[in-house]
Amino acid sequence: MPRLTPIEPESAEGRAKELFEGPLQGKSFNFYKGMINSPAALSGFMGLSAGLATGEFTAREREVFQLAVAQFNGCAYCLGLHTALGLNVGLTIEQTIQARQGTVEDERLAALVSLARAMHEKRGQLDDEDVESFRDAGFGDSHLVEAVGHYALATMSNYFNHLNETVLDFNPAPEI
Amino acid sequence: MGRLKTIDPATAQGPVKEIFDGPLQGKHLNIFKALGNSPAALNTYLGIAGALSEASLNAAEREVIQLAIGEANGCDYCTAAHTKIAQGAGLTEEQTIEARRGSLSDDRLNAIAQFALAIHEKKGFVSDEDVNSFKEAGFDDGHIAEVVATYALAVFTNYFNHVNETEVDFPAAAAV
Prior knowledge:
The structure holds 2 protein chains of 2 kinds.
Chain A (H helix, E strand, L loop, with lengths): L13 H8 L8 H6 L3 H15 L5 H15 L2 H13 L4 H9 L5 H15 L6 H9 L4 H24 L12
Helix pairs in contact in A: 3-9, 4-5, 4-6, 4-7, 4-9, 7-8
Chain B lengths: L13 H8 L8 H6 L3 H14 L6 H14 L3 H13 L4 H9 L5 H15 L6 H9 L4 H24 L12
Helix pairs in contact in B: 3-9, 4-5, 4-6, 4-7, 4-9, 5-6, 7-8
């Protein structure tokens, strides 16, 4: 059982009902059923996610970043979700595992995982070398800004699912 | 000078110019001039901040979270900015200092700070006791979701200002 009372689409009212019938149509995951206890919080999450999707990172890069951070935070729900989403946007199952292990072969993706690790471990206080390595892989200032946004997005979902003890509604990610 | 390029609102073009001339009119702060390197990220930041302005937690309550977490993350830019914003939202200067120390004399505000700090220290893996204490102070499942969302918003700005080494353009917050 999750800690927060799940709100089901059929019994939702007001703003929650609008969200289920609008942007969440066909996506009534347990995570959303928990967070929608506050329509404002869920709207914030959806806006952050959708807004960053219009940024410079590709969908594959975004999923690699989410997988890496979810692994650092030990979020089983998020790993299950982002393994499924990663496969949908063209990552191989092997790449989803490598993103979590920090062993991804593609140099650009590897630089992204390294930045995610530095941002996580140093709580944002990156060293100049961290920034230089990221730029050397071909990323610019816009990517650096958006990486912080993606880290905040991961924090919101990872920590919320920890707190809520959200029941997984995806296949669990492979054990590593 | 920050680490990232600074976008000058006077010479900005396209989507960034629209943001500086629109929602950020009169608020050309150093953090926004750096976030503006990615119009998607800047828009997204304003979007989540806007969504949370419709939260059940009021502005003063959300500022308590920003101050407690800004201090916990050692973000000088954020504690300076939120000391000013919080006073605009009705907190006294003494309460802004209490929030940064993580112990407020007002029971309700103190419960918010304690819960936000538990989320921070336990990376979301809060105990039943943490949740029960928060609820006993009069909060519900919706407020819980909003504390997590506000926490993530704080991580966005705290980490971004660390990454960017943003020059503070508010009066420095009092030492605590």
